[in-house]
Amino acid sequence: SGVIVLSWYPPGMADENGEPTDDLVPVVLDHAHKYNLKVTFHIEPYKDRDDRSMYHNVKYIIDRYGSHPAFYRHKTSTGRLLPMFYVYDSYVTIPEIWANLLTVSGSQSIRNTPYDALFIALLVEERHKHDIHRSGFDGMYTYFATNGFSYGSSHHNWASLKAFCDSNNLMFIPSVGPGYIDTSIRPWNNHNTRNRVNGKYYETAFSAALLVRPEIISITSFNEWHEGTQIEKAVPKRTGQVVYLDYKPHKPNVYLELTQKWSEKYRKE
Length: 269
Known about the structure:
Blueprint: E1 3-8, H1 25-34, E2 38-43, H2 51-65, E3 74-75, E4 81-82, E5 84-87, H3 95-102, E6 118-122, H4 128-135, E7 139-141, H5 158-167, E8 171-173, E9 175-176, H6 200-211, E10 218-219, E11 237-239, E12 242-244, H7 254-268
Parallel strand pairs: 1-2, 2-5, 5-6, 6-7, 7-8, 9-10
Antiparallel strand pairs: 3-4, 11-12
Helix pairs in contact: 2-3, 3-4, 6-7
EC number: 3.2.1.130
Pfam family, one: Glyco_hydro_99
Membrane topology: Single-pass type II membrane protein
């Protein structure tokens, strides 16, 4: 079964373009369970996020949702079953603060408590790999769907990142995407646009990810239309000035089919 990683803000908080979403979590969990999917959390960077507030966030999530059958737990190499949290923009917080939470001797340590989990940091620049290791994170992911946008999102750097992770007992989780175009919201960002090339871009990303044999591959995203990374079913549509991209000449579900194809390839390997 697959795992849905849900963008999450603490109760009452949201990003500047949205509304609080914690109320939606039970609905998502219930629906996921119907389809044999698991759900975990992508903790977004809210104001003043630090070791203490993160401890409370994790405690809240596990206390509230941890007993739901769709709540994801990852089986570690030592056989432990642990929740998993992706921490977006983790590099904004200095390693010393993270170490309070994520190392065994830290002042706010969550390790070996009922709230212990696998914490996955965002790697953007190469130097972040040392910070992530020092912080006590369990792994790193690359997030961005634009090959070449950052050190982490550049496919050709994945082999050396995987080697670094292997030698430091960290998980490496490359992120793949079907293309990228965010000029409807960031008109200046044209140079980061990546053409889908009828699915070839997505397949190239998957192929690069499989080459490094990671334990997990993450997909960015299911439905971020404004960044052109959606893989859900799409038909031609326009509203006012906005023309939504579609997958013609392919079928509306071509990216779901490609996802299935590569997931099966990955499982076999």
